[in-house]
Structure prediction request, 642 residues.
Amino acid sequence: MILLLGASGYIGEAFVRELQRRQWPFQPLSRKEVDYSRFEVLLDLLKRTKPEFLVNVAGFTGKPNVDACEIARAETLAGNALLPQIIAHACAVCAVPWGHVSSGCIFSGAKLTRNGQTRAEKDLTRPDIHSLAEQSPEAIQGFTETDHPNFTFRDLPCSFYSGTKALGEEAITGVGRSYIWRLRIPFDEYDNARNYLSKVQRYAKVYENINSISHRGDFARACLDLWERRAPFGIYNVTNPGFVTTRQVVGLVEQILKPAKRFEFWRDDTEFYQKAAKTPRSNCVLDVSKLLAAGVKIRPVVEAIEDSLRNWKPEAAQGVK
Amino acid sequence: MILLLGASGYIGEAFVRELQRRQWPFQPLSRKEVDYSRFEVLLDLLKRTKPEFLVNVAGFTGKPNVDACEIARAETLAGNALLPQIIAHACAVCAVPWGHVSSGCIFSGAKLTRNGQTRAEKDLTRPDIHSLAEQSPEAIQGFTETDHPNFTFRDLPCSFYSGTKALGEEAITGVGRSYIWRLRIPFDEYDNARNYLSKVQRYAKVYENINSISHRGDFARACLDLWERRAPFGIYNVTNPGFVTTRQVVGLVEQILKPAKRFEFWRDDTEFYQKAAKTPRSNCVLDVSKLLAAGVKIRPVVEAIEDSLRNWKPEAAQGVK
Prediction:
């Protein structure tokens, strides 16, 4: 039996769906049912139910966006740093292997190769980088699991959210046996306030950047594949291979969904941070070679976006949730 | 045997001295010897050594002062929130009762009674409050253990240090059996950069405020007394009873040590925060009725200050440390 913590959240739903599809026995839990943030409650639960694997999808992301985490600091820290540590300890004591949904948002930028030289750059908004992305995408490489997160409390600036997610990874690394699955900017065919493809359509103006992103269903599938294949424990970047510019995403939305709306972009970073955002945002490219080398199959990012848009389910059509 | 974590620090030294005085068997540990911040290392240590009680004095305070914690956020969180949680979990698993040195700096202000009405006020720098402190000290009451900390991430503003100390308390409350001992602004007769009486003498200008403070040796003695008396587990404010204004402390220093220096004060909060401090400081009065009701004896604050100054040991006279 697999124990699923945080089952009622946006990413939790994708795990529920994928576990059902596989017909794997599992127990979905929300904190309303069992307060697994209490160490001894969780310990007791593990001793009683003896799961073969545990998945933690719970965390604090901030609503409507990460700016909320700058205010709700205690909740952000409790959800993203203290809770993973609680789970790590309980699982270690009970010898339960587990997987934790972390975030790729602890990185900023990408590794750029220009004139034969490769170096990490944090700011991907510059026009010359976007030209590079269009003309020589192979010159833009993602961060791997051996790279040090560079958008954290140890490498400022960062958002409070990202700082706590990075601490969460540190808190569980080296304790027991666990996967750290790094998600980035989830999207899929279900129109939703958390879906990146919905967000892009709803923003007053769009922020041009470059990102690796994760199809929600593909993400859950890849995470469970790692466990099914008994891949070595440790950190895995779990995004759809490749990257996209916001302009590309908007182009696909226009081409496939043909919305009446005309998309506008923020002029630059300055305007974006003056008018739309408070805390710095992570925009980054991740490398998924390790995931692929483990034998996990996952669609290239553009294919996943196109497929989501072709099967687009507007919120109204999904019924009341 | 008592296991003492963080034995090499400023407060750790006081526990070492007090444990030696009592001739209680104990094992002092610093992280250089054993990395007790690693859950499984600590768990293994507890299983092997089976201490009857554990004392955690380790934490991250920032040098030269709490402003450093605003920068060293990862270390501050790891030391003050994640570490206590690690210890709480390991002690719960091994059924080891323990005590944690927390901080009263998660409060700001005091409860003031004026015109028959009592209300909490956060700012104790106002001249009218200082007049009250001199003329009717009984009108100034401290926060008790049932009051909610009001200088935390849940009740902004706070310093990053205070926010993490409050989270540390939350992380261990309700897990296993533990004391939370709240220390405030340590001082004693040993001249030292961490000693409040040394700081007051070394500051370019002094910040006039009102505080409950803890004699370092009295603090260690009171904490161990609680354990020796098998007082109920839980939170205890552990300061010398009463409070002092900075002006009173300066007066005692002038009267007893007769320094050549003439003390100057910051004009007001505005000047202090412009020139001397970055992050907000906690200044507060704590109520120690619970400690006294548990049968622990501890000197009134003025007596402890006078005694420290009469036995003052300048740093040069203490030999190389």
Residues 73-94 of chain A form the longest helix (22 residues). The CA atoms of residues 80 and 164 of chain A lie 6 Å apart.
